[in-house]
Task: structure prediction
Amino acid sequence: MSDMLSISREEILDGRWERILNFFRSRSLWMLYYCTGCGAIELPPSMTSRFDLERFGIGPMATPRQSDILLITGYISLKTLKRVVRTYEQMPEPKWVVGFGSCPINGGIYWDSYATVNHLEKYIPVDVSIAGCMPRPQAVIDGLQKLMRLIQRGEAVGYKKYQLNNQWYKTNQREVLERTEPVLAPASSARAEKRARRAEAAGALVGEPAGGAS
Amino acid sequence: MSVLKSILAGFAAMAVGLFFMGVGRQISARLQRRVGPPLWQPYVDVIKCFARKSTSHHFIMDLGSMMGLAGLVAAATLLPVAGWLPFPSGGPLIVILYLMPIGYLGMAMGVSASGNPLAAIGIGRALTLMVGYEVPFAILLLSIVAAFNTSLLSVMAQVQSGGLGTWNAVRMPLGFIAALIAMQAMLAEKPFDAMIAPAEIASGPMVELGGKFLGMAFLQHAVSIYVVTGLVVNMFLGGAASVPVFFLKQLVLFSLTMGVNGIFARFRIEQATAFLWLSAGSLALVQLVLNLILY
Amino acid sequence: MNALLLPLLALPAIGIVSLLLFRRARVLQWLLFLLAAGALVATAALLYGRWELSAGLSLGVATLGFRNTPLGWLFFAFSSGLTLFIALFSLSYNDRRHSSGVAPLWMILLAATMGIFFAGDWIAFLVAWEIMGWTSFFIIAHGRESSFRASIYYYTLSLIGTAALLAALFTVWRLTGTLDLDGSLAALAALWTAQPGAVTLVALLLAVSFLAKSALGPFFMWPALAHAEAPDDFSAYLSGVMIKYGLFALVRLVLPLFGPAYAGATVQGTPVFLYILGWIGGLTAVWGTLLAVRENDMKRMMAYSTVSNMGYILVALSVNTVFGVAAALFHIFNHMIFKGTIFLSLAAVKYRTGERQLHRLGGLAYRMPVTFFAFLIGIIAAAGIPPMSGFASKWMVIQSLFSRRMLLLAVPVLFASTASFMYLYRGLHGIYLGQLSPRFRDVRPAPPLQMLAMLLLMLAVYAVGTFPGLALLPIRDALAGLQEVIGAGGVGSQIPVTLGTIMGVSSRINLTTVSFVFLGSFIGVLVLYLLGKRRSRVEWLDTYTAGEDPAEWNMTPEQYHYAYRFYEPFEKMINPLLERLSLERAYESLARSFRRLSGSVARALSGGGAGVAVALLALAVILIVGVAR
Result:
């Protein structure tokens, strides 16, 4: 398993021009709640009238193409991790990941399960983690404000880490996701399919799958 | 010179429209007993959108998004604001009514080229709704032609310049109510926002738009707010003597729209179209017949 | 043998010669066709301004008279121009695999067209009408079984029209004693006070005939079959030129009856007869649009769109002013070129893919960009959106209604115009956008000649949209002579146009300015677009699917392309109405009763001597009684 690339702070943090734009980016954050687990229950109270996230300019958005923040709420099972990775890669840059709850940090109460992952940072870069099981809305707001400050200072650069250390992240993902198989495709061809797809670096998806449909 | 004035008109449309959107979000927030975002939030949103990288599937997607915004900005330059026009066109209403669908159709072409069927579903719903609200609005245009024999917005505003009693909202109340209902659908606010339904079709046409495409979609919405409220002010609320009063009247109309938006749920698209025909359409038709008889 | 007669005789001769000599070499037939179309354009240029020209073709028993009139010349020039572009396209379209072999018949049809437009008396008109009927019957069939049924349908409706036309001809002969077109119409128009019933009868018979030809009113169904089953390049000619014959005849033969000598009842300033025709036109516009929304076959959809546009033209004609006629002629011209563009691009798609159903196509814009742009410009014009040409003519139609305060009639026109966005977008999305099927991943763009034809038509649409005077100024000059015939004075008797502006009743528009404003806005938005951050290309199946990978679920691009039952909510709403008011059932019951009648007659006559004897006796009785009276 390769190590992460070592790179200096100055090279990876945002420059001065970007920091001017970061002023606007930090004040208008759009979240995609990928409600993976039970932590999602704390989001509606944060958004609605009592705690009101919208006054910070933070609002919900429907698809990864439109949103800036990928909010991973709760535990990440292996099935979900594949979709989370694909969603993360569909988001345009700059993008940030907020880990919500204890499960993305160290596995939380599901630390010994065979079906979940314990450390999300091994698979996608996490910018801010909000601990708690579950964190109350005040903690959520505090975490998001921390993210806003990081963005303003130009230090929230998880997406650049993902670009530079792509091999490392991909190796970790492959190691874990190999254990899952799609439910509806025939079992024997799934591995061969995945290997063939990995062989094409860009992951071109157009074309007849091995099942020979249509 | 008129080129510069047209550019000014385009910028004003975007700036004023975004400001109205900010006020609208405050109204929604206050209705829900929240604090809400600051009034300049949409400006920040748009700048953030343009400061983001984006993805596109084909150059037709870029072309379509640009065409959508271009059509609406062109309609904005034809709208008289308290009698002011960038070039002497008189504010031809029929031309504006036919330029506005370019907004939808241009964006429709762009998002169809993204290949996502959810976008196509959203556009199909939007076009079905368009038949619902364009027809009553066109009948209102016919009523005003029946009354004053003009389809120029500047002349319509002039005819109503004699005080509150001469406003068409007072002289043609049925038409005004029909216009308000149609306006609600033109601005795609609840209960007529099934084409943007985030929970059903993942925001419909905007599903693949990110970065500057989303920014242009936002600007398109802002300019459409400006143009539609401007149309209703010129047609029914007597235009205005000065530009700030004109913007104030537009703001009042838009606040009314956002107020209704905050209260209602969403209609299904066939319910919405049928409702628009039966309510706005019949009111407008009655107004047309009345005007044909009375004038 | 002057410039009028030479093409009339030469074209069929060339056609027959090409059929006999070049039966194998189809390409030579189509080359001859292109030359013939070019010769027609040259004839049009020669004939301009020579309004005193006339010719007579003696057939022994009768003489067919032809005369060069401004109105006829206008239609001839428009249709020749369109035919030249289609001929360019056809030369490339009819290669070894797709050739339909209809070129000789088409050349005879061109001669018949010329005959209709330049007819000087009723007999010439009727002969040309009939020749047009049966040549198009054979062209639509073009040797295929499914097309044959469509042809029979079309020809049956055509026969109804011809029967009415014959009846009208006999009535005119009875009433006026002359068969010269202008003379007999003037004489008829003078008969309004003396015999209003007879003149109304003539007008009614002529209207039935021409409404059937132009698919208006109760005859709206035949284009969907005929235009769809005809050869693809001929569909452009059908929708572009042939369906306008009825409207040309309405302007030439029916409108002069309602000129200044009209002494009957009027509604809002226009004769009752024309008012009813106007409402028929408005309802046809709505009906055509609603039926087009439901269609899944691209050619049928565009055929219903043609029906809808004919409705607009009839509405413009019903106001009975010179402005209205100008609006109608302008819309005829615009419809010719934008429908031609649309049908030619559909032909190019069919040429490359062989498909016509919307749900089997998709994404072809990515492989055939020029064809896509042709279709796009065509549908922008069809929707009536500035800066393309369709807007100016729709605007004029609405303005002509304003001049008579016939505002209630404007409601169906505006409804149909708005609802047309729906099916036009559906065609664009279903064929050209969305997902590209793997079957068509290697489709090549249209051949260069076809692209050239489409480019020229696109240019024409855009040019007339920016400078409407290009078409309106010739129309105005052609109608200058028609004022005494149609009706002078009052609102709408002038056509104030310049190269870029049109002065209507309720406002004046400057279309050049509108076009440039749109262009300027586009450039402004382009600058804004370039100011944003870079965008990156992504794969086609890399769309938002809630994190799922479509390939993993064996999802193919064809399944992912949304095209079937596109407007299901709208269809749910209008289907009950369409079912209840369906004319198809009425026609079917009529056909059933006719079949029963013919069956019983056949049985009676085939049962040996007794039936035949009865029939002969009945015939003898009728003859004796008729002769004795």
